[in-house]
Design goal:
Elements lengths: L1 H13 L5 H6 L3 H20 L5 E8 L4 E8 L6 E7 L21 E9 L7 E4 L4 H6 L9 E4 L8 E2 L2 H16 L6 E5 L5 H10 L4 H20 L5 E3 L5 E3 L1
Parallel strand pairs: 1-8, 6-7
Antiparallel strand pairs: 1-2, 2-3, 4-5, 4-8, 5-6, 9-10
Helix pairs in contact: 1-3, 3-5
């Protein structure tokens, strides 16, 4: 009887059409529990935003302790802010992650590369650190890895948002992938790179050209998205810098 009620709930919220990915995710108890607790909230929000086929984008602002979830219908060009989540614990300091064990949260342009429904931190979404820039500029063969957005409220380089909030974010990510989004981009910034904040960073880190170069590249991406609400094109230069178009 319980399984029948759960199947009916999924039909009401999202219909019978679930792809192989979502079906696989729903085999896990924590994912089923997340949908039972947060599924209706997600479905209602997507309906209110008139989103039929979901595409999402995640922005993380380390110094502000904020994770932003942006979304749009795949037929539309511009993203809209769906929700902001508080980051409940941090480690390290401003600046990129360059080696294993430095406790740094990475900074740069990334994407979700793993869904972990059996995580030690309830549910987790893997970030593809190290990316090409990190491999060029970091300590060779000692870059570390396993950086996640996850539940709980502890970190040594990850982005924790509590068990309760990861349920909701995880559902959005499952739904986006289920709707055909192959790559979910994640941009991690030191802070919101406004004009005033960039001036403050330049004054505080005047002698650290590596950080300032990175933040200048990240600001290009920050400004481009803020102005257009569309994703910029990101590529990597041979020196590890980003090129934003």
């Amino acid at each position: 009887m319980k399984s029948i009620k759960y199947t009916l709930l999924l039909f009401i919220l999202f219909g019978f059409n679930t792809s192989d990915f979502k079906s696989q995710q729903l085999k896990y108890k924590r994912v089923r529990s997340a949908y039972a607790k947060k599924g209706s909230m997600v479905a209602e929000k997507l309906k209110a935003l008139d989103i039929q086929k979901l595409e999402i984008y995640i922005r993380v602002f380390k110094n502000d302790d904020v994770l932003e979830l942006w979304g749009k219908d795949r037929s539309k060009k511009k993203f809209t802010l769906i929700k902001s989540f508080e980051i409940c614990s941090t480690s390290g300091k401003l600046g990129p992650k360059r080696k294993q064990g430095d406790y740094q949260v990475p900074e740069g342009f990334y994407h979700i590369d793993r869904f972990n429904p059996w995580s030690n931190f309830h549910l987790s979404l893997g970030i593809n650190y190290p990316n090409k820039s990190d491999r060029i500029l970091g300590v060779k063969e000692k870059l570390g890895g396993d950086i996640f957005i996850h539940g709980a409220c502890v970190t040594i380089g990850c982005v924790p948002i509590t068990d309760d909030k990861i349920k909701e974010l995880y559902i959005y990510c499952v739904e986006a992938k289920n709707d055909g989004q192959k790559t979910i981009p994640v941009s991690i910034f030191p802070t919101k790179l406004t004009k005033n904040n960039m001036i403050a960073l330049k004054n505080s880190y005047a002698n650290d050209s590596e950080k300032l170069n990175l933040w200048s590249d990240l600001k290009d991406g920050f400004d481009s998205f803020n102005e257009s609400k569309t994703l910029p094109s990101i590529s990597f230069l041979a020196n590890g810098r980003y090129m934003v178009k």
